[in-house]
Amino acid sequence: MANLGVRKATEKDAKLILYFIKKLAQYENMEEQVVADENLLKEWIFNKNKAEVLFATYGGLEVGFALYFHNFSTFLGRAGIYLEDLFVLEEYRGKGLGKLLLKTLAKITVERGCGRLEWSCLDWNKPSIDFYHGLGAKMLDEWKSFRLTGNELKKLANE
User: Fold this and answer.
1) Measured over all CA atoms, what is the biggest interatomic distance in the chain, rounded to whole angstroms?
2) CB contact burial 28-37 (16+ within 10 A = b; e otherwise)
3) Residue 135 above 70 pLDDT?
4) What is the DSSP string of 45-92?
5) What confidence score (pLDDT) does residue 2 get?
6) Does residue 132 carry a catalytic annotation?
7) Pairing of strands 4-8, 117-119
C-alpha cells in the first residue's frame, strides 16, 4: 500500500490549491461561483496569512486538501479552527485520507489550545455526513448559515 501523508502548503502551491478548489466546486455543482485565482490565493493565504492549507498525499502525490482558518468562540473565550474545504479526489476516497486530514486538523486544534474544530457540509452530501458522524462529529441542526455577498454586501456597507 502506498504511504499516506499530509504536508503543509507553501506559496508555490497556489496553482495546486486552485486545482483542488475547482475540483471541489465541480463536485458540488458550483463551478460558476469560483472567482479565485492563483494571485488571490497567494495574497490572502500566504501574504495576509488568513488561511492555511494541508494536502493529503498518497504515494507522494497530492490527492486531497483541507483549507482552514481561525475563528473565535465568545462562549469558550478562545479561538477555534474552521474547516472551510475538505476534498479528496474520487479515485482516492475510502483509503483513509479524509480521516487523516481531519485527524491532523484535530491535532493542530489541540496543540494550539483552540476550543473546537468545526465545518459545514451541504445537506445533500450523505456520504460526507455519514463519514463525519462516523468520526463522532455532531451535526448542529438548530443553526442556519447566513451570507452576504456582492451587491447586498455593498449595499449594507454603504448604508
Assistant:
1) 59
2) eeeeeeeebe
3) yes
4) IIIS---EEEEEEETTEEEEEEEEEEEEETTTTEEEEEEEEEEE-GGG
5) 67
6) yes
7) unpaired
Task: Exactly one of 58, 68, 92, 132 is catalytic; name it.
Answer: 132
The secondary element (H helix, E strand) that includes residue 22 is: helix 14-27
Model pLDDT, residue 144: 86
Is residue 131 predicted with pLDDT exceeding 70?
yes
Average pLDDT on 75-99 reads 97
Confidence tier at 1 by pLDDT (50, 70, 90)? low
What is the amino acid identity at position 119? W
> From CA 32, how far away is CA 86, in angstroms rounded?
19
Residue 137: C-alpha distances to residues 27, 54, 131, 141 (Å): 22, 20, 9, 12
Rounded distance between C-alpha atoms, residue 26 and residue 38, angstroms: 18
